[in-house]
Amino acid sequence: MMVVGVTGGIGSGKTTVTDLFATHGIKVIDADVVAREIVLPGQPCLQRLQEAFGDEVLAKDGSLNRAWLRDKIFSDSAAKTQVNEIMHPAIRTELLRQLNAADSPYVILSAPLLVENNLTKLCDRVLVVDVSTQVQRQRTLERDGVSAAQVEAILAAQVSRNERLAAADDVIDNNGPVTALAEQVAQLHQQYLSIATST
Fold it and tell me: CA 46 → CA 58, 63, 68, 80, distances in Å?
């Protein structure tokens, strides 16, 4: 099974791009979705986070208190390391399970930290959804309702635009209107189909 890794910085439009691949019948496995699923109530990861950080990590309904955990890992590098040690192996295991079960001509692995977390090793090709840093800031502020300081912290935690582009086999330019994306995705889809069927 050919695996195409799709990545991009925050606010780059990864989800819009992977949704377009899905319209072509391609299975999309999203690391962000998997990361949310493994910390649902009753899951071992949530229990381990509670053991590590106490009841503060839980919301009143017993689910993960994401806002508390986000603040914690941005202000405490040791806590960030601890969270990564708990979550990353579980995420990788579930990603591999879903990749092995995929049944489309090729499969998309969507991960914002594809390069940072060395998930490129699981991929045959890497597609980067690229936008300028200015566009990233603007879109993230509008979409997520976070502070400018939080946006800067998120940008600082991700690899630079140049590092991400250096890992790319293919690039989609998403600085323009969303209507320009469909054609770029359609062209890449045909390219990926021909690679997948020729191997």
Answer: 9, 8, 14, 15
Binding site residues, as ranges? 11-16
Cα(138)–Cα(146) distance, integer angstroms:
11
Three-state DSSP at 147 gives coil
How are beta strands 27-30 and 2-7 bridged, if at all? Answer: unpaired
Say how far apart CA 135 and CA 149 lie, in whole Å. 16
- Residue-wise pLDDT for 100-115, tens only, equals 999 999 999 999 889 9
Report how far residue 127's alpha carbon sits from residue 186's, in angstroms, rounded to the nearest whole number. 14
Could you tell me the domains of the chain?
A: 1-26+104-199 (3.40.50.300), 33-103 (no CATH)
Residues belonging to the binding site for ATP are 11-16
- Termini Cα distance of the chain: 9
pTM of the model: 0.86
